[in-house]
Automatic annotation (TrEMBL):
Region (Disordered): 64-83
A GO MF term: triacylglycerol lipase activity
Gene source species: Nesterenkonia sphaerica
GO biological process: glycerolipid catabolic process
Keyword field: Hydrolase
Domain spans labelled AB hydrolase-1: 28-266
Alphabetized InterPro entries for the sequence: AB_hydrolase, AB_hydrolase_1, AB_hydrolase_fold
Ribonucleoprotein among keywords: no
Keyword Zinc on entry: no
Protein name: Alpha/beta hydrolase
Gene3D superfamilies with a match to the protein in the record: alpha/beta hydrolase
Length: 287
């Protein structure tokens, strides 16, 4: 592991992952796992610092094909869903950690579920944010809002992926339909997208490749033994509230906290007064 511009670059085989740490390494470690196509920038620095201020050692990272981590050619990812799912374990190994508290958003929630079942000894607790059961028998769950399909088909084409302004515009418009009843904070999302575009090796790969990787297969959440905290909103257009309720019903030692008003997103500042203490309490209760 080497130090570079405030970010640790962890290398293994032919892969490198950009990792950033907040807080004292002696505190309980918390790994933040972003959703599909998202770099670590989507976990806001202010949120990471607030969690560190609660006595947590917070780790955020760029998944493959995002930010400063290893990238593949557009539409040709050279890794699998299993690789993405086990990268948090490689990060723990590089940092000398036997286990950690895993926090996953959306696809990151699927990764967290996978780790909770297949790497249970390395998972102290799980926190699943706007996620959905990755397998098992959840029953009938509502489909994504029809507006999402229409919005995705209306996204502007990016003719030149080296045109930062065009890429940022595209990124902002891609996020807009996932907003909840709080509305879409364009200024905040544009700032995140701008920082992400500035740092990323290849934004075209970032926006395409995660959707093309081979899946890990189903993971039955009912097999999770780690204490699990579930944050879910009644205004998530991709995974409506019954998805979070199904997780709470399936995972034996779980608690559902509703974050009404947010969309399919990392919890925004409006709900940090709920999220930060709930997450820190969840970690502390696990010892």
């Amino acid at each position: 592991m080497r130090k570079g511009e405030g970010v640790n670059i962890i290398t293994f085989d032919d892969v490198s992952l950009a990792v950033e740490e907040f807080g004292d390494r002696g505190n309980p470690p918390v790994v933040l796992i972003a959703g599909a196509t998202q770099s670590k920038d989507w976990w806001p620095r202010e949120l990471c610092e607030a969690l560190a201020g609660e006595g947590l050692y917070v780790i955020r990272y760029d998944q493959r094909d995002t930010g400063e981590s290893t990238t593949s050619p557009p539409a040709r990812p050279d890794y699998t869903g299993r690789d993405l799912a086990t990268d948090p374990l490689r990060i723990l190994d590089a940092l000398g950690l036997e286990s950690a508290h895993m926090v996953g958003l959306s696809m990151g929630g699927g990764i967290a579920q996978y780790l909770g079942v297949y790497a249970a000894a390395r998972v102290r607790t799980l926190t699943l944010i706007e996620s959905s059961p990755a397998g098992g028998e959840p029953g009938d769950l509502p489909a994504p809002a029809a507006s999402l399909v229409a919005a995705e088909s209306a996204l502007p084409e990016v003719e030149d992926w080296t045109d930062t302004l065009a890429v940022v515009d595209y990124r902002v418009e891609a996020e807009r339909p996932y907003a909840g009843s709080f509305g879409f904070d364009e200024e905040r999302f544009r700032a995140i997208a701008t920082e992400e575009a500035r740092r990323s090796r290849n934004m075209e790969s970032s926006m395409r490749n995660h959707f093309l990787v081979e899946a890990t297969g189903e993971t039955d959440p009912s097999l999770i033994t780690a204490p699990t905290l579930i944050f879910h909103s009644d205004t998530d257009p991709l995974f409506p509230l019954p998805h979070g309720e199904a997780l709470a019903r399936m995972i034996p030692d779980s608690t559902l906290v509703r974050l009404d008003g947010i969309g399919h997103e990392v919890p925004p500042p409006q709900v940090w007064d709920v999220v930060v203490p709930a997450l820190s309490d969840h970690v502390r209760r696990a010892g």
